[in-house]
Design a protein that fits this description.
This protein is an alpha/beta fold and about 750 residues long. It has 28 helices and 26 strands.
């Protein structure tokens, strides 16, 4: 019998609300949820295909143990976890915490389990957490730390209300990332009083809608943005009142920008000087303007500097802390922390001496940390909701590194390429078979949260991550399996749902047993969690987080309609989240509240970052490589590609091969026709591709999409394995972010006999 329910998409940071029709444990129809407080019925075509994630032939249903011949043997959960626990403890006790690294931990939309996974790091006395944000956003987080005081001071943009919108290295029409992306873009395009500018080497779907498209040379973003800033400063278009009231260090920044040779930098970017000047003037003079960026400038040359310059654009023009500008925001789930490398307490890696940024280490360095000689090398890894052998830079290096490990464990819903190389594979319940949520609540001034309820019973033989990690901690001897007093107290308080006495008792328990503090998530899971309705035990850590949030933003939570006093508001907020099937509004801020979120003691933005000003002064043009004359922009977003959560290729209505886009002039010169097969070769490796002749790309550049290169039902890899081409050493010198958007390659046509 069919039924309807609500949930949220798990494919990008917007996590749009969905209304679903379910029959026979399958999605029969998926559409936008009109009752969702933020997305209000919006949906893209990718979310409508989520049945291909939930049900496919490669779902795992039992733990697997690798045998000496490389095959896998099904084992019980107790057999797997007993052996894993014993081996982890042995590695820790013999070699110390440096021998262990945690990879992933809360894949896209799968963040609730992250509260539990991080406990394993503490149990192993390790600090080494690697995830995909470490190859995407850490340069941005580092800059935020310097500008705003803490690396968790994350910014968002009020695109919906901006008069002037600057999209740099992003294609929201396909990548989304902004509220109700396609509808929002249409509204901007139709409004004669608003301006949309796109900076991108490709004429993207968003660029086609824009008033201005600056089709710059790949990797020249720093030249373009610094030239725009120089125009703004030299023409005195900067907001002196804003800078005087809210910022420090502008004098140093101004001096650096006035030294920029504007015409020369425009030429290096290959953008007409007059157009660059027009855009800079328009942005600076608009009543409200904001900048939206993405991986296009975060995974290319000058990664960290790019993050600094794009923030200077809205800061020097006073478009910060206002409607239609860029703003800081609050977060319920603390997915980021602050780890300032200038303080010696933050652990550096053994080989690269690399520091964490926002608590994250960059994946680019991990193979070396595993393979280097020395007692302090990484010997064991735990991989959760991640597939580094396909998605992280330099697949060849990762394959070699994984083959040398003493222990590797993977938690996933399917036998990924990384799982195939592991010693143990632990099958997780899918995201629609358990309570889950995302930490990407990035809105301001109104912020929300959507706790997803289970839609289907867990597939037999699978477990949710909270149960996996809690059992593992118990088997490692880190925690007891029962807390009788807390359990009794939680049962007594369950009817009212406030749990104030239980939380107080928990605090006292942790004060007496300080080694348990890092494992509080599993303690509340085994105590308060048991008393929550509908098997919602995994949500128990949210209770503590809602209390913290309600204390920090008391007025703002009350303004959002939640009731209670200083003691009860957090519990009431938790209950509202638990019951709100379409999500809830957490808090309603005022734009002036941004300044309370700036973490510097003086509540000012500290504009002058010496490392960035030095890099700006030493900015050198890309010399190119005649051996590899093309620039590959790897990881392009398209209509039917997504992150690797979709493994069944049947979900794609178009582009089954993940074709390589190439300009007609380049194709003609190479003797390549549309649909031909070619070899795309870098200094690191080569892959076979299908060519799509397309004039949306610049001559001299090619593009390939992400989300391919996976095996399905023991097939050969389907589509391009991008990271056969990338090199872990080809990265930003500060953040180690890989240059996925600027990979030097050459293209060779394959003869029919070679194209096998």
């Amino acid at each position: 019998m069919a039924r309807t329910d609500t949930t949220a998409c798990i494919l990008c940071s917007r996590n749009c609300g969905l209304s679903v029709e379910i029959e026979d444990n399958q999605f029969k129809k998926i559409k936008g949820d009109k009752d969702h407080p933020f997305t209000q019925g919006y949906i893209c075509q990718k979310a409508a295909r989520l049945e291909h994630y939930q049900n496919h032939d490669d779902r795992l249903t039992t733990p697997l143990q690798r045998q000496s011949d490389g095959s896998f043997k099904p084992v019980s959960w107790d057999e797997a976890l007993d052996d894993i626990a014993q081996r982890l403890v042995a590695i820790r006790d013999q070699h110390g915490g440096n021998a262990f690294a945690f990879l992933g931990g809360g894949g896209q939309g799968n963040h609730l389990g992250g509260a539990y996974s991080q406990q394993l790091l503490a149990a192993m006395k390790s600090y080494f957490s690697y995830n995909s944000l470490g190859q995407e956003k850490t340069g941005d987080f580092w800059v935020n730390g310097r500008l705003f005081g803490k690396q968790y001071c994350h910014t968002t943009e009020d695109v919906e209300h901006a008069d002037y919108v600057l999209f740099i290295g992003t294609n929201p029409f396909q990548a989304h990332g902004i509220p109700n992306a396609r509808d929002t873009l249409k509204h901007i395009k139709k409004d004669p009083n608003r301006t949309m500018v796109v900076v991108d080497p490709r004429r993207t779907e968003t660029a086609k809608m824009a008033d201005f498209h600056l089709q710059l040379r790949p990797g020249s973003d720093a030249y373009l943005m610094s030239a725009m800033l120089a125009v703004i400063v030299t023409e005195n278009l900067h907001d002196r009142d804003f800078l005087s009231k809210h910022c420090r260090g502008f004098e140093q920044v101004e001096q650096a920008l006035r030294a920029i040779p504007i015409a020369d930098y425009a030429a290096r970017a290959d953008v007409p000087l007059a157009t660059l000047q027009q855009v800079a003037r328009g942005f600076a003079s608009a009543d409200s303007a904001c900048v939206r960026i993405d991986l296009g400038i975060q995974q290319t040359l000058n990664t960290t500097l790019n993050g600094y310059l794009e923030k200077l654009l809205y800061l020097v023009t006073g478009n910060f802390g206002k409607q239609g500008g860029n703003n800081l925001h609050t977060m319920l789930l603390p997915i980021l922390t602050h780890t300032d490398e200038r303080k010696p307490k933050y652990k550096r890696t053994a080989h690269h001496k690399m520091f964490p940024i926002a608590g994250i280490y960059p994946p680019n360095i991990l193979p070396d940390e595993i393979l280097h000689d020395g007692e302090d090398r990484v010997r064991a890894v735990f991989v959760d909701s991640s597939n580094p052998l396909v998605t992280w830079a330099d697949t060849r290096a990762y394959e070699k590194a994984f083959a040398s490990l003493e222990l590797s464990v993977v938690i996933d819903v399917t036998l990924t390429e990384t799982a195939r190389a592991a010693d143990y594979v632990l099958p997780a319940s899918s995201q629609f078979e358990k309570w889950e949520a995302t930490g990407f609540n990035l809105e301001f001034p109104v912020n929300g949260f959507h706790l997803r309820h289970p839609l289907f019973p867990p597939k037999e033989g699978t477990l949710p991550e909270p149960e996996i990690y809690t059992r593992l901690l118990e088997k490692m001897g880190v925690l007891p399996s029962h807390f009788p007093k807390l359990e009794r107290l939680a049962r007594l308080e369950a009817k009212r749902g406030l749990y104030l006495g239980t939380l107080a008792a928990l605090g006292a328990l942790l004060a007496r047993n300080r080694p348990w503090i890092p494992h509080a998530a599993s303690i509340v899971y085994r105590t308060i969690g048991k008393t929550l309705p509908d098997n919602a035990a995994a949500t128990a850590p949210l209770l503590a987080l809602t209390h913290v949030y309600a204390q920090q933003y008391y007025r703002e939570v009350k303004r959002a309609g939640h009731q209670g006093n200083r003691l009860t508001l957090g519990s009431n907020l938790f209950q509202a989240i638990l019951k709100g099937r379409s999500g809830v509004t957490l808090s309603e801020h005022r734009f002036q509240d941004v300044w309370s979120l700036v973490a510097h003691r003086d509540r000012r933005v500290h504009l002058a970052i010496p490392e960035m000003l030095d890099e700006l002064a030493d900015l050198a043009p890309d010399a190119g490589d005649k051996t590899y004359p093309f620039v590959l922009m790897a990881g392009e977003r398209r209509s039917y590609n997504a992150n690797q959560i979709y493994r069944d290729p049947a979900w794609r209505k178009i582009d089954p091969h993940g074709a390589m886009r190439m300009h007609p002039a380049d194709a003609e010169q190479q003797g390549i026709d549309n649909g031909d097969k070619a070899l795309c070769r870098s200094a690191r490796g080569s892959i076979e591709v299908v060519v799509d002749v397309d004039d949306s790309v610049r001559p001299g550049m090619v593009t390939l999409p992400h989300g391919y290169g996976m095996r399905y039902k023991d097939s050969a890899p389907i589509g391009p394995e991008l990271n056969r081409l990338t090199d872990s050493e080809h990265c930003d010198p500060l953040s180690k972010t890989p240059f996925h958007k600027h990979v030097p390659v050459r293209i060779e046509k394959l003869a029919a006999a070679e194209a096998v």
